[in-house]
């Protein structure tokens, strides 16, 4: 997922309406978040989703800087710098001049998983390897991953980033209770 710093570099802004509770929104050009978020982190997560699904992004092979189409510089001496058969780079890095290539899009359209499941897979240890087929989610070989993919899915009415976070918090508190029970047992 793109960090807040990267999102700001590619043109996102984050604003807070400091009431009680706080309300965070993001903006990118003419696009704004469709809801207000209670925490900045939630707004950043939603903005990162939007960027991954809707923007053509390019990454510098040398320094890792993320560019939008508009930020890329034209390539100087392309013919001299690219060998036959190499992938043609999309442009030059604004910062260091090395080649940039398109980033793999993680948008909703390109994945059989919905937007919430995609976050699960991207952040879970080895998730992209384990989770191959949405139709076979119960047999991914890792029951905790299965739980997350089922619980944090649009099918199960997970309809927003904050719903996902609520569900995770309740699972975490359940896990903590079970761990505490074992710790008490260990303490004898
Ligand atoms: Zn660079």
Brief rundown of the structure:
This protein is of the alpha+beta class and 188 residues long.
What does this protein look like?
With 188 residues, this protein is α+β, with helices and mostly antiparallel strands. The protein has a domain of 78 residues. It is 39% helix and 14% strand. The longest helix is centred in the C-terminal third of the chain and has 27 residues. The protein is globular and about 70 Å long. Bound molecules: zinc ion. The site of zinc ion has 8 residues, from loops.
Write the layout of secondary structure elements.
Elements (H helix, E strand, L loop, with lengths): L3 H6 L2 E6 L5 E6 L2 E2 L7 H15 L2 E4 L5 E3 L9 H4 L9 E2 L6 E4 L12 H9 L3 H4 L12 H9 L9 H27 L1
Antiparallel strand pairs: 1-2, 2-3, 4-5, 4-7, 6-7
The chain binds zinc ion (ZN).
What attributes does this structure have?
188 residues; 4-stranded antiparallel beta sheet; 14% strand; 3-stranded antiparallel beta sheet; alpha+beta
Order of helices and strands: HEEEHEEHEEHHHH
Q: What would the average pLDDT be, to the nearest integer? A: 89
Indicate the structural class. alpha+beta
How far is it from the N-terminal to the C-terminal residue, by CA? 43 Å
